[in-house]
Amino acid sequence: MAVVEVLSVNQLSVRERLRAHIAIMRLDHSIKNLFVLPGIIVPLSLLPGHLDRRFLFRLVLAMTAVTLVACSNYVLNEVLDAPFDRLHPVKRNRPAALGLVVEPIAYGQWIVLMAAGVGLGLLISPRFASTALALWIMGCLYNVAPIRTKDVPYLDVLTESVNNPLRMLLGWYAVTSVLVPPVSLLISYWMIGCYFMALKRFSELSEIHNRTVAGAYRASFKHYTPESLLVSVLFYASASMLFLGAFIIRYRMELILGFPLVALTMAVYCKLSFKRGSAVQNPEKLYREPLLMASLAATVLMLAVLLFVRIPQLERFFMPTLPQSALPSATIIGL
Fold first, then answer.
1. Any idea which architecture 15-178 has in CATH?
2. HSE toward the beta carbon, residue 20, CA cutoff 13 A
3. Predicted TM-score (pTM) of this structure
4. 78-102 exposure pattern, b = at least 16 Cβ within 10 A, e = fewer
5. How far apart are CA 51 and CA 57, in angstroms?
6. What tens digit of pLDDT does each residue of 188-216 get?
7. 259-268 residue pLDDT tens
8. Measured between alpha carbons, how far is 280 from 177 in angstroms, rounded to an integer?
9. Which terminus of the chain, N or C, has less C-beta within 10 A?
10. CA–CA dist 21, 23 (Å, integer)
């Protein structure tokens, strides 16, 4: 079987090889770069004067840089995961798993995409470029042995989801390099990424009923169970909402009105993870889920509007009723 595969690859035309190398960049996954948007919208609500023609150019430059770095990480993932993807009922059809990719060229592609992305980032600011480089380094830690955090249970979710706050920082530094984003918001964004990723792992593991096959495909599945993953999902959701609440109370009370929609979107996403062949396993296909898209659009719209609207009555409604001396730790934590 292996000999037949090699022969078929040798008969590929230049166009077919080029198509395979473009495919491993996973440009369809660029929809994940929407996670950059909150990092853009929040500082713009504080610095509306930055919204001009020059900013729009910076935004296009920033999104291009983020896409190039993300594509670099996907190329590395595709090449290094090829032996494991051949054990997966769907991913075995990826170009690298089929042997359609020339590895030396793919590694060159990996480096060139990173250099181009970080280079474009330097045109925006040193902070943006260093954050883009951090995003690329996280891809290396996640995929490359002997560290390869994707093989370690829980660490796989935590390290992959660090990309969430990094994307937020990239959006933030596309707007300003002066203001510093609140730690509470970054942690909340990290934990919500963990929530999504843990549900993806849960859906994948539930789909592969054979534990031996699941462990061969993804090493962390040797240690996970559906129950342990759902418990971790509960932790990530709770932590995310805790730190989101800290950000809301400290910086923008109006956002509390959008919380029901945030909770609804999380509930819809959770339910999707129980479906067979769920789009949760392939987030780039989530646009096919109308209820999720409607809920997400309403959530984003509501939160975006609330960032630019002041409702003083909320401040009075949530006015502290206990003496400050009764809460000595309240001034210690600077979130």
1. Orthogonal Bundle (1.10)
2. 22
3. 0.88
4. bbbbbebbbbbeebeebbbbbbbbe
5. 11
6. 999 999 999 999 999 999 988 788 888 88
7. 999 999 999 9
8. 34
9. N
10. 5
